[in-house]
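Folds abound. A case:
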Amino acid sequence: MLGFLKNPVVVTAEINMNLVALTVMGLMSRLWGLSYPRAVVFDEVYYGQFVSLYMKRIFFVDDSGPPFGHMLLALGGYLGGFDGNFLWNRIGAEYSMNVPVWSLRLLPALSGALCIPLAYQILVELQFSHCAALGGALLILLENSLITQSRFMLLESILIFFILLAVLSYLKFYNLQRHSFFSGSWWFWLLLTGVACSCAVGVKYMGLFTYMLLLAIAGLHFWHMLGDQNLSNVSLMCHFLARGLALIIIPVAMYLSFFYVHLTLLYRSGPHDQIMTSAFQASLEGGLARITQGQPLEVAYGSQITLRNVLGKPMQCWLHSHTNTYPIRYENGRGSSHQQQVTCYPFKDVNNWWIVKDPGMQQLVVSNPPRPVRHGHIVQLVHGITTRYLNTHDVAAPLSPHSQEVSCYIDYNVSMPAQNLWRVEIVNRESDTDVWKTILSEVRFVHVNTSAVLKLSGASLPEWGYRQLEVVGEKLSKGYHQSMVWNVEEHRYGKSQEQKEREVELHSPTQMDISKNLSFMAKFTELQWKILTLKNEDTEHKYSSSALDWITMDTNIAYWLHPTSRAQIHLLGNVLTWASANIAAVVYMCLSLWYLIRRRRKIYDIPEDAWQLWVSAGGICVGGWVVNYLPFFLMEKTLFLYHYLPALTFQILLIPIVLQHLSDHLFRSVLPKSMFRALIIAWFSSVYLVYCTFSPVTYGEPSLSVAELKDLRWKDSWNILIRKQ
């Protein structure tokens, strides 16, 4: 029975030493001296704030993209024991001892290092030689800009890693498809393609470009499968469903999961939640939730409420009134009603409280049982402190003369009767009998007499209006804008009929017994919309550039300067590699055009399998460069050189493809082929020499002299920092 023990158990493994060597060199180049400099480097000042907020579980909104990349950076801080206590206020600030610099920079560095073996495998899967694949990987290894970007707490190296992983996974899946349908490895690489694509998009929306490219390639490949008569209809349907599951459904589900984790982690109120709706704010711990928790859900006649404008621009504000009146004459000579001012005030204030009154009754308290207000009901809004009624009439608004003035009515015994009836319209109602709900209902108020809608114009009133925001009556039109929509934020059931007692009540905090929670999908939809539409004012940055500057690297970015010496770090690429990548792209496009014209004339310069290889490689590399570069010409945002790095990576992969093609099909005889290989070796040596030349400003050490720094300024447009000592 124990005969099998007579022979040893042998495990045989094939190890690609090229991959091992490339991985080791990549790790050495990216991880060496990773904690240097122990100071905030360029955009670490930006991403570090989000890491601190993750550590403290405080909600934030970043309009630059989805949260997955931020969570990965925060994971590095968590693994390093970071408590989030550091003031990220300026570039160059020295890190305190509680900041685990090495841990925070680890994941970007690992991602950058792993891009090198990924590049090697992509070229191998494209059916190019191991020599060409090794050359392409070494070019990624020696690219100064990729090294710099991967050694700090930045997202581009993580993005490029997931992009390359998605490309490699799809190529492996496609190559397996030729002889192995629905096997374990076939499913693994197909599913990994979708996972990597969703991770790329989750890091930065730039990942969407490569995702769309791979979807287009997968669609083209499936189109070719439709012509295969050996595949049954059932088999084709299975292939279609498998691709739909792996490349669409799973990425969408993963993308949602990033937000789910993000919202689960960040449950505390913070400075960014003010741009969110009242319902969203109330779902966070602290902040508005402390005020609104336990408020009555249904607005009833007699309810005391504050009304927040849903638009939130130019700032969040609440419907407000005070005892001051509109001036009799404006500066431009127009007259006003001289009624009590109604504005939108961007701060919490007792003058933000209004009472919902039934026009047919005099009482200003909630009856027992409460009578809820429903969609379509007519109400009067009474200002809680001054007890005057919200009113609008055919008088021009102070700053918006085409709209009606909104005021609180004062009876001057003149021929200007009160017009204070408003119809409640619930915009997000599910039925026409919906009850007006606290926080959840988005409401507009339509004036009964004039059909004008209560609207925030957004204009700031002059000194007489205390620079508060103008509120107007806008004539009812088709559709609606968020500036016309309001929601109840704070709410209590009024109990005091006497004015003095009611004023005390209005100054008191709300204490009720009903709480409200948003579903995950409601919070996701709102947060996603804010990310896509929220625009910070883009200001011209000293190191911003245009997309045209990137191809020839006419710009650089100074990332860090030592406070006392001339040591500095710049985002500068390997000039020879960038130039060679541009040449390779031009050669590829010219050769492709030449081949297409010749093939149209039935002249075939290269074998059919070589042509298919040439086209597929171009679809990945040239396509990857195009989709990651050209969209920046359409973007209205501040651009920097690092935005070009994903496109550059694809362009670098094109260099060995073009070189091998030239060697195999243009230099066929022994002597030209030998001379061509000698030129390649000389060129590669030059690439290494350029890498070494710029290494001091890639790694930040050693410190260079003034003369050496001047020698590095190969282009007049480069801003090399020179401090005279």
